[in-house]
Predict the 3D structure of the following.
Amino acid sequence: MGATKTDQFTNRQNELATLSKALGHPARIAIIEFLLKTDACICGDIVNQLPLAQPTVSQHLKELKTAGLIKGTIEGNAICYCINDTIWYKYRGLLNFLFENYELKNNKCCYKNIKPKGL
Amino acid sequence: MGATKTDQFTNRQNELATLSKALGHPARIAIIEFLLKTDACICGDIVNQLPLAQPTVSQHLKELKTAGLIKGTIEGNAICYCINDTIWYKYRGLLNFLFENYELKNNKCCYKNIKPKGL
DNA sequence: TTTATTCATTGCAATATTACGATAAATAAA
DNA sequence: TTTATTTATCGTAATATTGCAATGAATAAA
């Protein structure tokens, strides 16, 4: 075992899980934030921003790229990374589906059938 | 190695990463969706909804609980799970921070300094 | 061409995740 | 009390993630 049973879930569930997982590391959050707030998205700048070695950053960039959240363009001997806005908006859309199609029923859940202990 | 360097990132980055990571599996997305759309959040119902064995579901529930996204209340010999709305709104807030404080500069990134190849 | 710069890849060790059978713990039902 | 129901935990196997030194590949600069 050890492999996620992807085929047992919907595409939407898998897609949101994949994108969430890609953001499931503080370094990758930091990378996304850096790319969101700056035009200068040369790989070296990202490496300098993070408290991690260059190969480690490269690996995180690869994961974000695999998830589709970022893309890279060759510029001379450097590589310019940026947010992939198509997937970024898709991610927002998947989250909005979750946030807007349901209404939290705070006081109806977990308490309706409680029998007080000790009575 | 193998352990995330949590102390090198901000609380906000770590919190968003932790919550994102908790949602980084389709089964946990499915659990959250089920809890969002129903009042009946007895653990057994969740197990029946998922294509996974009971111990595996229990483990996913534990991860969501550890991240703070859900909470459980004992009801007789069953346990009623529900969304922890405090953390749920915190998650939404952390995401909104990301979505609203930055503006995608689609056409300014990755193309401004490109020297056409072959010229 | 030679050297420097930039980034990816490889290889490895440590740790974490995913999944489930078996079993334990706790309450409910008979 | 005995049995059933419900959920958590343990143990284990397979796989994935995290991190980095060393190295490779590619372009830039000298």
Q: What stands out?
A: Chain B is about 50% helix and 10% strand. Residues 1-4, 25, 27, 52-56, 59-60, 63, 74, 76-78 of chain B lie near DNA strand C (CB under 10 Å from a C1'). The CA atoms of residues 23 and 29 of chain B lie 6 Å apart. Chain B touches chain A through 59 residues (CB under 8 Å).
